[in-house]
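Slide 14.
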Amino acid sequence: MRKATTNSICRAYADKGVRITVKPVPKAPELILFEGDALAFEFLGKLFLAHSQHMDGCGLQMGPKYAGRSFFSKKTTLGIYLHRLPCDNDILTADHSAYKKKKAGAQK
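Slide 15: predicted structure.
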């Protein structure tokens, strides 16, 4: 059996009515709220797992203004970006120096 891909997970859940809300927690805006029913979290869990195992790129972006918008509720103010390390092409500007040092040390 083939490993699930993020695209195959999205196709499988496309007609199931999944709706996720992603927004800052109102009284603690430094926290991100992921809100949905059991089906929404099942979808997210399988999506994260597929992304961790799929080797076609290190990033996945979805949101109310991007691909995958049908999975987000009208209350959503944020999208999601999953970035698996090591990065395939270093396009992100986030500082992953601790990860790179750990990886370099393991290769010695």
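Speaker note: The chain has one domain: 6-83.
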